Amino acid sequence: PTTTHPIMLQKIIEADGSARETATEQEEGVQNQSSLVKSAVDEEAPAIAESSVLPPQPASLCLCAEGRVSRGVQRAAARNLASDACRSHFFLALSVGFWAAIFGLPEYSVILSYTLFGQRGRGIEEMRLAVNESSDGTNIDDRLLDFFEEQQRETLLQRLAVRCAATDVGRQVNIAAPGDLPTLVAWNESFGEWERSKDNHIWCGVFPATYLSYWPNVAQLMVFSVYKNTGTTMSIAVQGVTGTILAAANMHLMVMLFPDGARGFPCVSQGAEAQGGFFVLWYKKTTAWHVVRTNSLRDAWRVYRGSDTGGLRARAIFHLDGSMDKWAQWFAPGWDKHLRTKYKSLFKSNCTEGELVYNDPNYEQFGEIICLINVAVVTMLFLISVSAKNTIMFGLSWHLCFMMNFMNPTIGVPRTQDGSSWLMTEYFVVEVTTVLGAIVAVLATLVPCAKMFNVFHLKEDLNAVTFAISEILDDAVLYLFGMTRSAKRFQIEAAIDRLSWTNLVTKDHISGAWWETLGIGQRAKLRWMLKTFETYPSSIKDILYVIKNCVLSETFDGEHNSFMLSVQEPANDLLEHTQLLLWVCSTACTDGIIDESDHDKIAEAVGGVKNAQVALLRAFRKAGPSISADLSEEQLFLFALSMWARKTTDFADNLTSVDQDSHSRHDSVCEVFLRALWATWDPKRMLQVDHVMFAVRNWLSIMVVFVIAYFASGSIFDRYSYIMPVTLSLLMVSDGSHHVEYEKCTHRLLGVTLGKCLPIMVMSFLSIFECISWLRLFAQATLICTYVTFFCFVYYNSDMWSYVGCLVAGFGVYQLMAPCDNFNRAEYYATKYKELGSVITAIFIQGFLQAALQQRSAQDVIVEHTRKLTTALCAAFEAVFESDVGQLQSALKEVAEHLGAAKQVAPECDPKLQIWRGRLPPFSMEFGTSSLKAIELVAAELDMILVAAKDWVSGPAGRDGDMEEVGESTGVLELINTMQGMKSIRAEISESMQMISEILPDMFANTGDPKTRANMRRPEQVRAAMQLEGAAELYKELSGASRLFAVESEELTNDLRVRVTIVARAFQNTAYHLGRIEEGCIKAARAWW
Q1: What does the alpha-carbon distance between residue 395 and residue 400 come to, in Å, rounded to a whole number?
Q2: DSSP run (H or E) holding 790
C-alpha cells in the first residue's frame, strides 16, 4: 500500500462513509474501492484541485490504514484512465464523422444543394433525370412536386433546363422569350412579386458556383485538423489557415503580373479553312471565350449543346466558309458583333496551327517560365522555412493547385467584359472554406461525453505527476527497507519508465492549453503554473535513474538489514514530509496564483523537510556505516532520497519567488506570434544540414511530378491535373538527411490507395437507391459518418496504424460527398482508375527519389551517432579522472544528445523494414537495444558522479520557469583521484571504454571485418574487468581518509563520506555495464561470424 494525498483522501472519505471499512478490506472491497475512487475523481476533482484546506499539523501525515489505497484500486484507476482515453477518442471520432456528414449535405442532398447553390451543378442534373424517368408521363416524384409547387412535367423540364451563371446568386428572372436560350437578370420589384412557382423566376442559391466545387474542402480540412483535444486542434487549424492564406497571397501577386493567367485558345492559321473543319465559339459570363475545333458537324453540335452550363451570352457554330450555322447560333442583344469579331481574330498569320494564343500578350512572351520559377521558388520557401508541418502541407497543396490552374489555358484567371471580382475567384473561396473548416474542426472537439479541453486536464495532470512521483519513492522506500529481493523491483522500474510518458502527456496539455486560453485569464495563469511545475520531474530524472539502479542491484545481504533498520524511521519521516511539500506545491498551483496563505503553507512544509533532513543525517552518522561496497547501494539510495528532498525544497523556493504576472505576459498573443515568426525564418535552423536536405528532397520530388503533370498527356496522365503534386505535398518525408522511412512510405501508399478505392466501393453500394430519395440521403449520410468515425478512431487511438487512418479518412471524405451519378458510370470509374494510377506513380517517384538521394541508411546514422556517443563517453571519463567538473558537464550534454538520436533512429534499423537483404548480416535489434540501454545506464552513473562531485544549488528561474543548475566542484573528484586504487580503476575503465568505442560502432555497421572480432577480449577477461579489482583498495583508502572529513550538520547530500561512496560505487556499476556491452558484442559476433 501507499499513502495518498491527504486532501484527496479527505474527499474520498466524505464522498462515501464506508470508505474507511472498504479501504482496509482489500481482498473483499477492491471493486467497491475502484468505483469509489473513480466517482470521487470524476465528481470531486474540481473541488480537490481548488481546495486549499490542509491538515493543521504535520503529524496528520502519519496516515493509518484507512488513509491508504490498495494496489488493486490503483490498477483499477489506471485501467479507468486508459478506458476514458479510448472512450474520448471514440466520441471525438464520432463527432468528426457527424460534422462531416452534416457539412457534406450541400454536396449530396439534391434539395439542400438547390437551396444553397441554386440551379447549377449535378444536383439539378439529377432533378432533370428524375423528371425524364418519371413513369406516368405527367406527374413526378411527390418531393419535387411539393418543392416546385405542383408544376407539371413539361413545365418543370423547361424550368430545370435553365442554368445559373457561376456568379449569379439569389433571385433571378429569365427575360428570354419562350424557346430562346435563357437570359438571367437579378430580380427586383419591377418584375412583380417573386414566386418560386413562376416558370421564369429562377433561384440561383446563396453562394456562387465556385463554392459548390470547393465545399468538400470544409470536411477534408476538418478531418486533417482534429486531433485528440481542442488545443491541438486549434493549433493545427490555425496552421492550415495560415498556409492557405500564404498560398492565396502568392496568387494575388501572380494575377497582378498576368491578369488572365495562361488563359488562351489554339491558334488557327490563315489556311485552316481550306483544311476543313468546324469551329464552336461561345462566351460565358464567368469564364469568357471558349473555342473548340471539330472535324465533323456532329461533333460540333455535341460541343454546342454542352456549352450551356449557365451564364451564356453568345454561342455559334462556324462553317468552313466562315458563316454561322443558322440552326446553331444564339446571342444576347449586341453580342453577334462580338462573336464575329472573335471568330476573325482566331486566324493568325504569325502562329503555327494548334499553337496556343494567350489572352495576355505578356504571358505569351515570358509567362510560362515565370510561373515555373514561381512554383519552384515558393515551394522551396515553404519547405526551407521552419514552419509547422501543417502550415507547409496546407500551403503547398493549395499553392500547387492554384498555380496548375493558373497555368492551364482553359482556366487561367477567368475574366469577363465587366471584370472579375476577387470574391468570386477560387483563391478567395478556398480561404473562406478553409476558415469554415477550421471553425468546424474546433466545434467537433466540443464533445459533451469527453473532456477535450486541455485546460480541464491541467489540475488532473498536477495530481497525476505528483502522485506518480510520490508512489515511486514510496514503493522504493518500502522495498529497500525490506528483508529480501522480490519482483517488486521490476514494478518500480516500470513505474519510473512510465513517468516520462506521463510527463510527455502533461507537456502536450500545457502546449495545447495556450491555444484555448491565448495567454489570457485565470486558466492562463494556471497553465503557466503547471508549466513551471512540469520542470520538476525533469530536474529529478537523474535521481530516479539512481533509485532504479539501487532497486535493481540491491542484494539484501551483508549488513543491509541492521543498517537500514537504524535509519528507517528518519527516512520514512523525510519521505512523508517531502511528499507533503510536493502536494502542498501542487495544490497551491491549482488556482494559478500563489497567495500569502500558500506561501505560509509552503514555508511550513519546507521547514518540515529540512528538519527531517537533519534527523536523517544524525541517524546516518549514528549508524556509522563504513565506506565499503557492502553498504554502497544503501548509502547511494539514502543520498538519492536526500537529494530528492533537497531538489523539492529548491523547487518550492523557486515556485514562490517567481514573478507570475511577468511570465504570464511572455505568453501573450503578440509575443508568441513574434517568436513564431522569428523562429520560422531563423537562419541557424533553416540552414542546418538535415533541414536543408529535407527541403531539397521534398522539393525535387514535388517539382518532378509537377512538371510531369504539366506536360504529360495520355495514358494515366491528364495534362494540367494537380492531383499528383498536391498528393505529394500532403505526404512529405520526415525532416532529416540520413534515411528513408520505408515503413512510413508503405503506410503512405496504403493510406492513399485505400482512401481513393474504398469510397468508390461505398458509392457503388448507394447505386441501389434512387437518386432523389430520402432513403438514399440517409444511407449516404450514415456511410459518411461511419467511414469517417472508424478511420478517425484508428487515427486517434492506434500507434501502428494512426497515419494510415488519417490518410484514409482525409482522402476518402472528399469522394464520399459526390452526388448521385446515374450516367457515364464506365467513364466515371475509368477516371477514378486513372487518378489512382497517377497518384501511385507519384508516390513511387517520391520513394525512388528519396532512396536515390539518401546519403546514408538508418544503420549508417546509428553507427555515426554511436561513434560520437562513445567518443563523448571517453571524454566524460577523462574529465572524471582529471577532476574537471566543467568538462564532465559538457561531455554529458553531448552524450545525452547522441544517445537520444541513436535511440530515435534505432527502430528504423529493424531488418523487417528492409526491401531486400544484402550480403551483410541483418542488424540485430536485440543487440542494438540492449547496448543502448547499457550505455544509458553508464550515462546515469556519470550523472550521479557529477551530482556527487559538484555543489549543486538552484539558480534563478529561466524564461519558461525552469531552474538552472549551477555549482562548483566540492573536491570529491580531486580527493578520489589522489588515491592509489584509482590507478587500476582508471586503467580498467579506460581500457573497457576504449575497446567499446572501437568495437561497438563496427558491430552496429555489420561490416564483417575480421579485425573487429580480433580486437575483442576473451569472455574471462571481460568478466574480470566487470569485477573492478581496484574498487576494494579504493574503499579501504577512502575509509581511512574519512576520519579527517569535515562534519556535516544540515543534510545528507553534503556529507563527504556519502559523496565519495557514491563515486566509488558508480565506478563499480560502470565497469559492470561496460562489461555487459562487451559480452553483447561477443555473443553477436559469434552469431554473425
Answers
A1: 9
A2: helix 774-797
C-alpha cell at 987: 586503467
Please identify which residue in the block is written with the cell numbers 480561404: 431
In Å, how far are 219, 335, 562, 819, 859 from 216, measured between CA atoms?
5, 37, 74, 12, 43
Block residue for cell numbers 487518378: 835
Q: Would you say 159 and 137 are in contact if contact means Cβ atoms under 8 Å apart?
A: no
Tell me which residue has cell 519521505.
575
Using only the alpha carbons of the chain, give its radius of gyration: 37
Q: Which of 528, 571, 523 is nearest to 547 (CA)?
A: 571
Give the separation between CA 704 and CA 850, rounded to whole angstroms: 12
Which residues, at least 6 apart from 529, have a Cβ–Cβ distance to it below 8 Å? 589, 592, 594, 660
The secondary structure element, H or E, covering residue 491 is helix 488-517
Outline where 417-487 has alpha helix (H): 426-444, 458-480
Helix (H, G, I), strand (E, B) or coil at 119: coil
Q: Which residues make beta-bridge pairs with 965?
A: 954
List Cβ neighbours of 807 (8 Å cut-off, separation of 6 or more).
731, 747, 748, 751, 752, 754, 755
CA 419 vs CA 110, 167, 210, 250, 376: distances in Å? 32, 12, 16, 20, 30
Alpha helices in 518-559 (DSSP H): 522-533, 535-539, 541-553
Please give the C-alpha separations between residue 886 and each of 319, 347, 680, 878, 903, in angstroms, as whole numbers: 91, 83, 33, 12, 26
How far apart, in whole angstroms, are the C-alpha atoms of residue 503 and residue 506?
5
User: Tens digits of per-residue pLDDT, 154-197?
Assistant: 555 556 667 777 777 888 888 877 666 677 888 888 888 887 77
pLDDT digit string (tens) for 965-1005?
545 777 888 888 888 888 889 999 998 998 888 888 888 88
Q: Strand, helix or coil at 716?
A: coil
DSSP annotation string for 592-615: S---HHHHHHHHHHHHHHHHHHHH
CA 627 to chain centre: 51
What residues form DSSP beta bridges with 174? 184
Contact 221, 437 (CB under 8 A): yes
- The size of the chain, in residues, is 1089
DSSP 2: E
Contact between residue 641 and residue 477 where contact means Cβ atoms under 8 Å apart: yes
DSSP 347: E
Buried b (16+ CB within 10 A) or exposed e, 414-426: bbbeeebeeebbb
Average pLDDT over residues 426-441: 89
Map residue 583 onto helix, strand or coil. Answer: helix
